């Protein structure tokens, strides 16, 4: 076996446990997505992947993928996998707050294996910090770019290859390259000397090895032939909103982000690129839901399959895509329960489709409210129907429509955008009134806004993200109930949260969910 692979989602905290009110998944869905083509090749026996540890079935792949939350509590798990698998290819998919964790994991792997392991870093943080200038096509390294940090000796040369953008096919090619080198007794890390190998690799990406770069040609791959992640890695998540049934992460694969461009958000298509192949997105989503149903019924006999659609907005809230989905998904009735994300205004615009979507299994919608008054924090681009009433009036209308169609609702709250304490209190009171009127929101996700690199659209913050977002201690403990939060990297121009503020929000949350 010339290719031995370990894939890791690094931790976002130095220490601490996941809070009971945090929205979490046991499946690292973004990492699965990036690795699914390689896993598919392993599954059907193609090339070096067909002779790798990932070719030994779903269980073997699951056991060589690690989702970490805190470094100190889970480094022993990482060490165990390094010792057991002895990987020669380590894939790290890092969000921005996970970057210190990615550095720690790469450092440990290099200490153990040196150049006998090729370490590849990708993920959202790399894609936001290593990018092309839209005007000139010049490669830009944000101050937090791993490539720049290694060049400036801020961190050791521990990442052999850095991938910005689509990782699907570059990962396949890197695995083939590592296997070829190892079979000839050449150290796996030498893969960084062969960037010419990637010249025809599909996707939109930048690949860096030290000071050398290669940029993809206009070679977009066909998303209609990409398999569902759950087919290759299984399902290990159980969401309370689906009564604790197994819940798969599914996608329409219509692009990297949201069609709106809210300035604080990493999901924006301004950051992730345009939406793609929307004309066939409904068909892809339908196939993934069917796959999820089949995988769950086989793995968990007697359980009711469920899924959450990870589109930033369900099928980009495009009427023609949703109309197509309603037509092709008639057979989903009672086959699988599912949820997805919509905005307040999109829900109101799509009210004619709520009933047919409910009939096909849509039971849950997740809505981001952020604040009760968008204008107080600079506004949202998704706040579009200004002539139809205030943001909260439109939210009331959306929730009423969802209630009429027996669709449950979860809400995402984002603090730290510059809102006042009074604004936060008012928002929680409104949530309480909605719970009394509609019986939902059934779940509320809390986050404290973090400044991301955003391909340089960070207001000049220029954070390097080398330190953990929050140090261990009382603040770290208080933030365990927040999905994403940081003291060290607040939105540029906004003060970081104080312990008193965080505890106030937690107290208001407990009044909502006693």
Structure description:
This protein has helices at 29-44, 58-62, 71-85, 99-113, 124-129, 146-151, 168-183, 229-233, 269-272, 281-299, 319-328, 344-349, 351-359, 391-404, 421-438, 474-478, 499-512, and strands at 5-9, 65-67, 89-93, 118-122, 130-132, 139-141, 161-165, 205-209, 212-215, 238-239, 245-250, 306-309, 337-341, 362-370, 408-415, 443-448. A hairpin with a 6-residue loop joins strand 5 (130-132) and strand 6 (139-141). Helix 15 (421-438) packs parallel to helix 17. The chain is globular, with a radius of gyration of 22 Å. It has a domain at 5-215: Rossmann fold, CATH 3.40.50. A seven-stranded mixed sheet has the order 2-1-3-4-7-8-9, with helices on both faces. With 514 residues, the protein is α/β, with parallel strands linked by helices. The protein has 17 helices and 16 strands.
């Amino acid at each position: 076996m010339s290719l031995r692979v370990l894939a890791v989602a690094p931790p976002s905290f130095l220490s601490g446990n996941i809070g009971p009110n945090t929205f979490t998944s046991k499946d690292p869905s973004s990492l699965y997505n990036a690795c699914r083509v390689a896993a598919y090749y392993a599954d059907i026996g193609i090339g070096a992947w067909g002779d790798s540890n990932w070719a030994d079935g779903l269980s073997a792949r699951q056991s060589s993928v690690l989702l970490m939350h805190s470094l100190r509590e889970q480094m022993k798990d990482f060490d165990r996998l390094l010792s057991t698998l002895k990987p020669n290819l380590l894939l790290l998919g890092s969000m921005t707050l996970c970057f210190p964790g990615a550095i720690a994991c790469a450092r440990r792997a290099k200490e153990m294996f040196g150049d006998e392991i090729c370490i590849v870093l990708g993920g959202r943080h790399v894609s936001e910090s290593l990018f092309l200038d839209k005007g000139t096509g010049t490669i830009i390294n944000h101050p937090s770019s791993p490539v720049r940090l290694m060049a400036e000796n801020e961190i050791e040369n521990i990442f052999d290859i850095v991938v910005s953008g689509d990782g699907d096919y570059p990962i396949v090619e890197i695995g083939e390259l590592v296997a070829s080198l190892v079979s000839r007794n050449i150290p796996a890390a030498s893969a960084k000397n062969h960037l010419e190998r990637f010249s025809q690799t599909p996707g939109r990406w930048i690949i860096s090895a030290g000071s050398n770069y290669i940029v993809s040609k206009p070679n977009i791959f066909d998303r209609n032939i990409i398999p569902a992640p759950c087919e290759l890695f299984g399902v290990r998540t159980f969401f309370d909103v689906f009564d604790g049934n197994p819940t798969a992460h599914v996608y329409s694969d219509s692009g990297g982000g949201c069609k709106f461009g809210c300035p604080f958000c990493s999901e924006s298509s301004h950051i992730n690129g345009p939406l793609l192949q929307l004309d066939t997105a409904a068909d892809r989503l339908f196939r993934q839901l069917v796959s999820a149903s089949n995988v769950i019924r086989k793995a968990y006999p007697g359980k009711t399959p469920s899924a959450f659609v990870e589109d930033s907005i369900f099928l980009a809230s495009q009427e023609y895509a949703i109309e197509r989905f309603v037509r092709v998904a008639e057979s989903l009735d009672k086959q699988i329960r599912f949820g997805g994300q919509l905005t307040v205004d999109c829900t109101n615009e799509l009210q004619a489709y709520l009933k047919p979507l409910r009939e096909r299994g849509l039971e849950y919608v997740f809505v981001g409210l952020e604040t009760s008054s968008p204008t107080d924090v600079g506004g949202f681009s998704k706040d579009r129907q200004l002539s139809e009433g205030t943001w909260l009036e439109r939210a009331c209308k959306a929730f009423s429509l969802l209630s009429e169609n027996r669709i449950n609702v979860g809400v995402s709250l984002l603090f730290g955008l510059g809102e006042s304490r009074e604004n936060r209190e008012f928002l929680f009171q409104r949530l309480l009134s909605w719970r009394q009127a509609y019986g939902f929101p059934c779940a509320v996700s809390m986050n404290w806004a973090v400044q991301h690199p955003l391909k340089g659209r960070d207001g000049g913050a220029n954070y390097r993200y080398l330190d953990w977002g929050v140090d261990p201690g009382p603040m770290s403990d208080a933030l365990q109930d927040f999905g994403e939060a940081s003291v060290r990297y607040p939105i540029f121009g906004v003060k970081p949260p104080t312990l008193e503020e965080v505890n106030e929000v937690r107290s208001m949350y407990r009044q909502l969910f006693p």
